[in-house]
Every structure is written in structure tokens, then in C-alpha cells.
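Hey,
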Amino acid sequence: MPDHDRVIGWLSDTDPALRWQVMRDLLDAPETAWRAERSKVETGGWGARLLSLQDDDGQWAGGAFAPRDFDWSRWKTLGQPWTATCIALTQLREFGLDPASDRARRTVELIGRHSRWEEGSQPYWEGEVEECINGRTVADGAYFGVDVTPIVERLVGEVQPDGGWNCERCNGSHRSSFATTINVLEGLLEYEIATGGTEASRAARKSGEEYLLKRGLFRRAATGENADEAFLALLYPNRWRYDILRGLHYFRASSMQSPGAQPDERLGEAIEILRSKRDESGVWFLDWQTPGQVWFHMDDGPGKPSPWITLRALKVLRWWDGLHAERRSG
């Protein structure tokens, strides 16, 4: 049997960005304790390191989606760069940077003043045209206290006939994609947590959830076949990419918005696949990484134990097993 205490100790020894989540989500520490630990994201570890790389105008790498003066011809050979503002903001949100902190508020204000999307020169907090990007902008904006209602309203109007979203809609696509849908769902959920959402945004979120649930989080609706082998290969950071752990992590967070909600058994197969990928020592491994320039890595590379994947997997399984335990006892 895995040594749970050893795994918890390993996670706790990594970085404040993980440690506060271990305290809150795996150890049920008092709120005062985990909030005190979360405050260290700004001043130590990965959070402080990423903040130290911020430009004077509030951006990262001089651009919204891509670094300033990025040579787009190198995309195919080097991969998408992951150093610009939108990626940094998402990472700070996932680290748990306190949105009420002076540094977070100043960052939001500076980005609103100086950053514009490369696609059409729109002000950053107005979003651009791709649903993937807008979903993450909604998530980041809602978390950091920005009114992103106009972007939410746009996303609500862009639901595909099959219930989800696809950033290729602007190129004529009428089918949803797993990746775009999860990006939008995370944004709508963060918006709902921050504001309560609207009737339309809550309905759109349920529509997107049903799109994933009908497919068991990774199968084609028409044939039941695996839609993409990469969906079963775990990675972090996900960036825009989808895998079953990202889907399960979302449904855990969504469930917490509906106390007393029953487990949806359509998640069961993905849960068991996740469970099967646990090493005998109790950890999960990084299966692959997205190519492209990064500021720094937070793991030892593919094929090695991943603290982020392990943290998220443990959170998901604790939630899932807890729901079933409550149902049996009830």
C-alpha cells in the first residue's frame, strides 16, 4: 500500500504553491493556517520567481499571448512559447496568489492599461476571438477581481450545437473540442464562484459539462473510441491542453459549488484510469510536456514523479471516494 504520509510530506516539502493546497484540501487545516501559507506564494518559491520576471508595464515577455517580437516562423520547430502575460497570469492563479494582495491588484491594473492582444489589438481584459484564450482570460480575470462579464456573454453565445466550444468556430467549425470546452468551463466556473454567474452562464456551463460527461471525459460520442491517446497522458502545466485529470479536477471544483450533489457515474471510468496510473510508492508521474520556451520547470521532466499531478490526483480521489462513502452511509 502507498505510504500516504510520506507522499503528503513530499508534497509539503516542494513549494508554498502546493503546500497551502495540501493543507486545505488534503489535511483540512484551519483556514487561518492555509491562508497564511498561501500568502507565501507572493514572496517565496515559484510564485515569487515568476513575479520577479514581470516587466515594468505589468506584462511578461512584453506581450499578451506571445513574447514581443516573437518569430512566428519558429513556432513549428520550437513549439508555442509559454512566457507571455496570459500564461503567467494563469499560472499565478493556479499557484494561488492572493487576489487581494497589493501585487495582484497592481498587476491587474497595469495589464489593463498596457497589454493588448496580438490578434486584434484589443485591450487585454476585453478578450480576443478564440474561445480557448477567452476562457482562460475569464478564469484569470474573475479570480483577480476583474469584471469580465462582456467576455462571458460572448462565450455564452458561442456554444456549439453539441453543447461545448471550439476555438475553430471562427474558421467554420460546428463541433466542440475537449480542449476548448475545458478552458471555457474553468472560466465560467471561476466567474460563478466570484459573482454567482448569470442564468445564461450557468446554463452554458451545464451544457459544456454534459458534452464531456456524455463522452466519459475521453471518448468519441459516435463510436465510444478513445478520442485522443493524449487525453490519458497526464501533464502539468496543461496550458490549453486537455487530459482526464484536468477534466476530473474541474468536476471536483464544480461539485463544490453544489453541496450535496451526487457523484456522476459517467466519471467513473476516468477515475479508475487515474487510479491505475498511481505508482506503487503513491505518486503520479509526468507523462509528457508541451514543447516551447518556458521561464522555468516545476518538475524533473517526463517519466519522473510530478508533485502537481500527484496533488491534483489526490484531491480528485479524496473527493470522489468521499462522495461514495457519504452515499453508502446515507
